[in-house]
């Protein structure tokens, strides 16, 4: 016997091993799980993959995922059109929606500036953002990027780019996560929390 | 906007979140990866899931996964029919094949005895194992079960069950993993390594 699985099993393992966050062992575990799962469960997963590729589009205005473009947020008349929250990925839209603290519109960049991965400003939805700002409707841009090197680089780039436009540009506060323990905070986070201290 | 994704995206996230080793965040990451992936890549994964459910069977003799039953190992005339290695899952067959140290046949139990999960001897391929032993061909049974509570319980159960049959019943050696560090070995493993010490 060869030291790899028979064709279909190996193809399934390879398919899962190509997904983010799944290694070869995890892929094998999932493949054998699906082998023992009911036909309905496996079929449902295969259908969900096909369906999402067929039906899901990106909103022509904000770049969020949606079934119909413009997306429900861009076409909702109750949303505040004067504030645009710039995020890296569609999943960040959902994270911010879950806070129920934001009622404006979004703009999904599709990533962050990352010279190491050869991702520059032209690879992101930045020209589209500038187009949206031409309408004079927008008064504030909230840069809600990931608090890591790539996110910081993108925030710096965008705040310089937007400064001539006389639009208020803000960014998310850095500090201690709610419910965390001061003892376990890293120095940089604690330093930012000190810099950004407020009156109690 | 609702605080869940549109239908197809949420169905895909739910589908992945139901797989072993994938949590809700990981499922979301995979779903968005597939959304941005090429149609071909997504299609290949959906096809691999369908294909494996359509084509892959379990060997009627040993219970291993295969495209044709009996499996290539059971039908290989060069394999030593006097030794049967009993494992929990089909993936364990592959792990042992990769050692290139074993040339006998396998028997896949389909799990281990686990009273907490309501898995008893009758839920495993134990009657099938006893049937195979009726032929007098088998001289040794190697119990290659996982070295955890359930595996140990199954080893104890099987060695008692097989003792009247006058077949040699062996089990895998416990001890320090090759390439590991004595300092980081847990007490039980180190104790087993001491008990099983050999002349150097």
UniProtKB/TrEMBL annotation, chains A, B:
GO terms for molecular function: DNA binding; zinc ion binding. Keywords: DNA damage, DNA recombination, DNA repair, Metal-binding, Zinc, Zinc-finger. One of its GO terms (biological process) is DNA recombination. Residues 82-177 form the Toprim domain. It comes from the Bacteria. The keyword Zinc applies. A zinc finger (C4-type) spans 59-74. Belongs to the RecR family. May play a role in DNA repair. It seems to be involved in an RecBC-independent recombinational process of DNA repair. It may act with RecF and RecO. This is Recombination protein RecR. The gene is recR.
